Amino acid sequence: MYDLAFRFDNGVQSIFVDGELVTSSQGHANLYSREEFQIGTWGGNFMKGRICDVKIFNRALSIKNISEL
């Protein structure tokens, strides 16, 4: 089992696995949208497995905050 965290902050998307930054990239739009927000699916594909806990914050967490989740 893994702990995954995705952070969007000022156009930078970062992905963390078990509290460690594994990749980041720039040029992403903010997530502010009126469209449906989905977890575990993308482009008609669905994740295999279970999602046991989801937390959504109204701010970008610091790396320290993410490692303490």
From TrEMBL:
Pfam families: Laminin_G_3. Gene3D superfamilies: 2.60.120.200. It comes from the Bacteria. SUPFAM superfamilies: Concanavalin A-like lectins/glucanases. This is LamG-like jellyroll fold domain-containing protein.
